[in-house]
Amino acid sequence: MNKFISTTCILIVSLFMSQAAIADESYAETVANFKQANDTHKFFDNAYGYAIFPTVGKGGFGIGAAYGKGRVFKGNGYAGDTSLTQISIGFQIGGQAYSEIIFFKDAKAYNEFTSGSFEFGAQASAVAITIGANAQAGTTGNSSSAGKSAAKAAYINGMAVYTLAKGGLMFEAALAGQSFTFEEK
């Protein structure tokens, strides 16, 4: 009986440890993808910090929503967890998945994002399977991108936002805003 309980406990602990390892791998892979993109790799050298969302799922038919979990880094150190929520209204149909990164230019932008609840933006996008074409207006200003080649956005209000399409098909001409929560590590 004790052997069964011990084995069960080891399996449960292993399951939780492997889930954490998979999550860490997902974050590392997403950061590596953004570091490879010509227009985003330079931000890693200069940014005060960043928030990374390996997968944001988005769907809509008239009314849409998106959600993703992420992590916030100050310099290269893990500072806490964040979540992204988006509600949109307008012409939209389909679903998509993408990765998102928000670079913080300085302590002011970082503190604004991590102060609790933070909101920004209105965006419109079109993603075709695994190659994305994004048009975005918000803290990044107007930009467009395809696949790993992101638009040349600059910091606006101390933040720069980039997305990498992962897949899906969504047509959207809608008003949307993203809101974020932050929980310190």
Sequence of secondary-structure elements: HHEEHEEEEE
Distance between the termini: 38 Å
* Helix share bin: 25-40%
Number of domains: 1
Indicate the low-confidence ranges by residue numbers.
1-22, 123-151
**How many strands, which pairing sense, and closed or not: the largest β-sheet?**
7 strands, antiparallel
Count of alpha/pi helices: 3
Shape: globular
- Which value, in Å, is the CA radius of gyration? 18 Å
Tell how many strands the DSSP assignment holds. Answer: 7
What value does the average pLDDT take?
75
Class by alpha and beta content: alpha+beta
Share in β-strands: over 45%
Question: Mind explaining what this structure looks like?
Answer:
With 185 residues, the chain is α+β, with helices and mostly antiparallel strands. It has helices spanning 2-36, 41-46, 107-114; strands at residues 49-74, 77-104, 117-120, 122-128, 131-137, 143-146, 159-184. It has one domain (30-184). It contains three helices and seven strands, in the order ααββαβββββ. Strands 1, 2, 3, 4, 5, 6 and 7 form a seven-stranded antiparallel β-sheet that branches. A hairpin with a 2-residue loop joins strand 1 and strand 2 (77-104). The longest helix is centred in the N-terminal third of the chain and has 35 residues, at 2-36. The protein is globular and about 40 Å long. Residues 1-23 form the signal peptide. Keywords: Signal. Residues 86-181 form the Ysc84 actin-binding domain. It comes from Shewanella eurypsychrophilus.
